[in-house]
Amino acid sequence: MLKRIASPGSYIQGKGEIHHLAHYYRQLGERGAYIVASDIVYDSYGQAIASSFEKENIPYTLTKFGGECSMVEINMHCKKLGNHDAVIGMGGGKTLDTAKAIGYYMKVPVLIAPTIASSDAPCSRLSVLYKENGEFEKYLPLPANPNIVLMDTEIISQAPVRFLSAGIGDALATYYEAAACAQSNALTMAGGQCTKTALCLAKLCLDTLLENGVKAVHAVSLKLCTSAVEEIVEANTYLSGIGFESGGLSAAHAVHNGLTTLAECHHMLHGEKVAFGVLTQLVLENRSIEEIYMIMDFCQAVGLPTTLAQLGLAEISDARLLEAARASCAEEDTMGNMPFTITPQDVLAAMKVADKLAVVHSA
Q1: Residues 183 and 314 in one domain
Q2: Comparing C-alpha atoms, which of 261, 238, 239 is closest to residue 325?
Q3: For residue 11, what is the enclosing H or E element?
Q4: Catalytic residue among 84, 85, 256, 346
């Protein structure tokens, strides 16, 4: 039985670390950094990035991310890489996944510097590819995790609180999916079966979220970086990143992927859809009503959707919801990692029951 744990070369977290970006680049290369940044990063932190590199007289190119982690976007950046010998991704999950894919195809090291803690993408050896219209296409497994993950918690605490909440939603799935994979002996994204270490990290992730999530959300709503925020950034990024990759994905993320086929959901963030996927998985597993309500209450307290209406699907027909359920059960997706057989009809029923329970519980 093969077991494997995957993790980034270095994980660095602290206030003001963006000002040391060039210093960390020096650990990876010397000919120059190719920096892919989201619009917000480009506009708000472009000067800080430039200052870091110019102060150390290091060549760099700062370019904007186009908005979708697609092969069209990735190929465009690969052509522009030129003589640069490292890629730096700065922004949200799709920007970071694009940077990791560029590093993979061009065989150069990667530094990931998120400016939001909205997903567990930063630490993983995986890029999630989408079509140009925002629909999920496939997972791109990578041979290695990022060389460096750099979390500037001062910047993260200044971002809209919705991003931190979405990261909590993504991280919320970590333990439940890893537990399912451990039970089914499923193959994880790291290329082995779930280890005790990964399962412990996944459980620590869940415990940290439940203990600090509400406090952190309130702090970030005030643009403040507290100890609770530091704890949640670590949980959203490192604990969830290692936990999902070495623990495994199952129903919650498969439901998310199915929901991406519905245009009405495209305005929702990844972690917001995953949170509803968690509730759907809890129903599929027939967890106790007390546990389901506990997770629902937590989701509501940190601003995560618990109903179809909150996802923009108030008027969705069963026929169209079944289409999303079928997509979640696609052969190449992770629904098959559950320890029992699940059909699209099962997923449809679980989504509708999760929605009904949330509506009744919050009434």
Answers
A1: yes
A2: 261
A3: strand 10-14
A4: 256
Match 């190719």 to its residue by tokens. Answer: 34
> Is the domain of 319 the same as that of 205?
yes
Mean pLDDT of 100-118: 96
Token pair 């939603």: residue: 169
257 and 306 belong to one structural domain: yes
Average of per-residue pLDDT values in the chain: 95
The single residue of 84, 120, 253, 355 carrying the catalytic annotation is 253
- Amino acid symbol at 202: A
Q: How far apart are CA 351 and CA 336, in angstroms?
A: 17
Alpha carbon separation from 139 to 128, 135, 326 (Å, rounded) = 5, 12, 18
> Given a cut of 90, is residue 233 above it in pLDDT?
yes
Q: Is 253 annotated in the active site?
A: yes
Catalytic residue among 85, 97, 152, 170: 170
| Reported confidence tier of residue 320, pLDDT bands at 50, 70, 90 | very high
Can 218 be counted among the known catalytic residues? Answer: no
Judged by DSSP in three states, 62 sits in strand
Domain of residue 35, residue span: 10-156
Measured CA angle at 164 (ends 92, 287), to 5 deg: 115
User: Which one-letter DSSP state was computed for residue 335?
Assistant: G
Residue found under tokens 């991406």? 260
- In this predicted structure, the answer to whether residue 363 has a pLDDT above a threshold of 80 is no
- Is position 52 within any domain? yes
Burial class (CB in 10 A: 0-12, 13-18, 19+), 315: exposed
The pTM is what? 0.91
The CA distance from 298 to 49, in Å, is 37
Residue 106: phi, psi to the nearest 5? -100, 0
Specify whether 185 is located in the same domain as 122: no
Catalytic residue of the set 77, 85, 270, 355: 270
Active site residue 256: yes
H-assigned helices in 90-195: 93-106, 153-156, 161-184
pLDDT score, position 120 = 84
Q: In the prediction, which pLDDT does 183 show?
A: 96
